[in-house]
Amino acid sequence: MIGSFREASDLRIRYILLTALFTALASTGAVAEKRVALVIGNSAYQNVPKLTNPANDASMMAATLKKSGFDSVVQRSDVTKDTMRRALRDFADQARDADIAVVYYAGHGIEVDGTNFLIPVDAILERDTDVYDETYALDRVLVAMEPAKQLRLVILDACRDNPFSKSMKRSVGTRAIGTRGLAKVEPTNPNTMIAFAAKAGSTAADGDGKNSPFALAIANRLTAPGMDLRKSFGFVRDDVMKVTNNQQEPFIYGSLGGNDVALVPGPAVAAAPPAPAASGAPGPQFAPIDSTDRIRRDYELALQVGTKDAWDYFIANYPEGFYSDLARAQSKKLAALASPQSPPTSRTTTPGPDADIRLRVLTELRRVGCFAGEPTSNWNPAAQRSLDLFNRYAGTRFDVKIASLDALEVIKGRSGQICPLACQQGYQIDGDKCVKITCKDGYEVGDDNTCERIVVRKPPPPRYVPPVAARPNYRDRDEPPPRAAQAAPSGQVFCPGGVCRPVARGCRVVNDTTTNGGIMNGGALVCN
Hints:
The protein is of the alpha/beta class. It is built from 14 helices and 19 strands. It is elongated.
C-alpha cells in the first residue's frame, strides 16, 4: 500500500516537472525568435509619371509589422540608387542574426531577359543595358536577406505596366523587355518565398483608394498570429480577386517545409506532457497529425502515382475540400487523355471547354511573340506551328496537335519575348511589336528596310520610224492601174508554125532556115 502511494506521488511530481519544463521551453523559443523587415515605397519618380499608392502602402505595411512585434522595421521612401544601396547593405547586417527577414517593395519594376529589377526614383533608362547600372536586380535583395535562419520573405507590389519600355532603345534585337508585370522566379535557397501582387506576366491594380488592393489584403491577412504563411497568402489571393473581379491574381514562388511557418507567432501554449499511466508500462506516445497535413501528404502520394485509380481512391476518402477539387480535375484530365482522339474537323468546330483552351493558348502564344495571327478557337496548322516555335525557344516538349491545359499554364508563366520577333518587308521592330517604316518625302523603303532616295528615271526617247508612203487605192479612182513595164521588141519577128510574133529584146532565133526581111520562119527562140 505504502509502495503504491509513493509510486503515484513520484509520477505526479514528474508530471508537474515536465509541465513546467515544456512551458519554459515554449516561452524561451518565443523570446529567442528575431524578426527584421525592410519596407520601401517609391512614388516620386523623376523621369516617368509619379505613382500615388506606393508611399501610402509602405507606410501602412511598416506600421502593421511594428504593431505585430517585429524587432526592427526600417522604412525608406522614394529611394535613389545610392540610398537603395545603403538600405540593402544595412539590412544585410540586421539579417545576419535574424530568424525571419522580410522585404516589402512597392514601386516600379522591370523584367529584362527573364530577370526582374527594382527601379529607384532617379533611374534613367534610355536603352536596355541601362538596367544593369540604374536599377537593382531582385537577386541583390535575396543576397541581403540570405543570412536569415528560418524564413526569407520578399513581397513585391511592383507588377505594373513598364513606363520605360516605350522609350527604351534595344542594343540587341533579340533582347526581351517585359512590358507587363514581372517574370516568374524560382528561388534557389530553401525557406524562401517571393510574393507577387499579380501572376508573372500580368499587371496589378493600384485601386481607387489610398492603398492598393494587394497592400490592404497583405496588411489584413499576413500578420494573423500563428497562421501558416501559405494559408495567409491564400486568403490574400481570395481577397484581391474578389475586389478586382478576378482580374488580378496574386502569386507566390518558392517552397517551405512541412511545418507551419507563421510570420507572427501565436500565443504560447504549453505542450502537454504524456499523462502517467494508471498501471503497467506506458505505451508509445504519438503526436496528433493535423488533418490538413495528412490530406496534403495523401494528395502528393496520389500525384506521384499519377493514375486515375489513385485519384478516385483519394476522392473517395476525401470527398470535400480544396485538394478534392484538385483531385477531380486531375482525374478528368487523365480521362480526357485516355479517350480516343476525335478527328481534327470536330476538334476545331465543336464548342465547349476545349475551344476556350485553344483560344487562350493562342492568345498567350501571341503575347510571347510566337503567334502573329488573330487568336481563334481553331487549332489549325498555323496554330500548331506557333506552339512548335514556342517548344523550340522555350525548351518545352508539348504535343503541337492539341492545346492542353499544361501548355497554357507554362506559356502564361513566361513573360517577355520568347520567340524572336520577325517583321516583314517594310516593317521594323519597335519594342515588342512590328511597326511600318515611314520615310520622309523623296525617300522610299529599300530592299534592306532602310530609306533610300527615290531615283526618277527619265523615259527613253522614242525610236524614229520613217513614215511609210500610202499606197494609192485604185479602186476609188477612175483610171486603171499602170501596167508592168514590158521589154522593148528587138525588131525581129519569129514565125513558128505560120504564127508570127515579135522577138523581145534579149532574145534571138537560132538555127533559122529562112530569113525574109527579118522574119524567121524556122529555128528556135533563145532568151538571156
